[in-house]
Input
Amino acid sequence: MKVVFIGSGNVATHMALAFKEAGHNLAQVFSRNLNHAQELAARVDAIAVDDIAQLDKLADVYVVSVSDSAISEVVQELNGIGGLILHTSGSTAISVLSGYNKYGVLYPLQTFSKSVNLTFKEVPLFVEAGDEASLILLKSLATGLSDKVYEANSEQRRTLHIGAVFVCNFVNQLYQLGAELLEANQLDFEMLRPLIMETARKVQHECPLRVQTGPAVRNDQVTIDSHMELLKTTPELSSIYQILSNSIKKTHQY
Amino acid sequence: MKVVFIGSGNVATHMALAFKEAGHNLAQVFSRNLNHAQELAARVDAIAVDDIAQLDKLADVYVVSVSDSAISEVVQELNGIGGLILHTSGSTAISVLSGYNKYGVLYPLQTFSKSVNLTFKEVPLFVEAGDEASLILLKSLATGLSDKVYEANSEQRRTLHIGAVFVCNFVNQLYQLGAELLEANQLDFEMLRPLIMETARKVQHECPLRVQTGPAVRNDQVTIDSHMELLKTTPELSSIYQILSNSIKKTHQY
Output
């Protein structure tokens, strides 16, 4: 199918690569920043455009993959388009597209960085559509991209997105804080990498509740106090240490 | 070498299995709870004891792997022992063992659950010893167990332990909170597993700072507000959302 991408960020990049891989014809990549459009367009053999009036009106699918706050503005400019219009946002309701004839949502529950390759076939995709015909088309598109396609309404998708913020963005920030703590003491973040990998691996077949370890789950106040003492010069780490230790204790009913 | 284990928890279990695997003779496993001692003893062909007076006085190595708060008490009961005495704690200084002749610390920087197997050869081990002869013996022991052996003093080890709490225990708690959030909305934690794995995988060759994604690093206040609105009925999630979003913004200088 002939596909137009609107957006050229991390999500757009990996989605466009997946569409290309699945054999679709990527006609255009639009971005207000022509350099960004060109960068992605070059990777998927598309034409880069930075003027929305230049969009091909005859594509089968338009993938709007821009920041959440820009979606509604971009969508208003897509007049005269007859193809299936999709957005890729977890926290934006499908209703933002309801002015169009055929529309839907294709939300990939994954963390994408332009510079990091991944196996798109394993990315869970959540679909929602404005009508039955669009849903059938969207599902067929999605199953061509990934082995994990689920239906989810806008409310479920927002919950999934918040869940993703906790298990990905906040987790990555804890990695970052761990890295900073080590570096401040002339220790290398490399030393934490096996632990990070194992922590993620453990919950692939277990639930996190059952595999928790460390001072808080043992209610080991001596160690917690010793850590808090060391963190007292860094109020941010100290607050995070306290709130998450309390959360673990609460979960494990101390 | 003839090795005695004091303790039978998660760390003791995986350490004892690693010693066994490396060809050592595990003479005894001590625990105040005989069932626990027997459970581990059976896995490593050792004799289970629950009376510290029954400890074999002639072993080469004694591994004290009990909770941090119990170490100093247990250590006081090891009179008349001539072998190398080790503890395995991140946050306990080596000085707790200084009443003995040969002593050291063998700290594995990993998360261990009895029920979850792992490749011990990849576990970073941090060693510290009371004297040069003990250090040589300890290093030789450690390199038989793992390919990643580092020297670290008690202060560095405590920093590593706090780092581990951030990137492992707190991370696992975020997995748990994500799971609870999904389950409260009839969604399956399974949907988050590929994201969890990818988030850990991404930082194996990159630093976390460079691969952060999500609303906070984009300073996307519309999405953050929409998430906070949904979380307002769960004060704990709401506080964690706020503190970690602010931390991300601070790291990325918004």
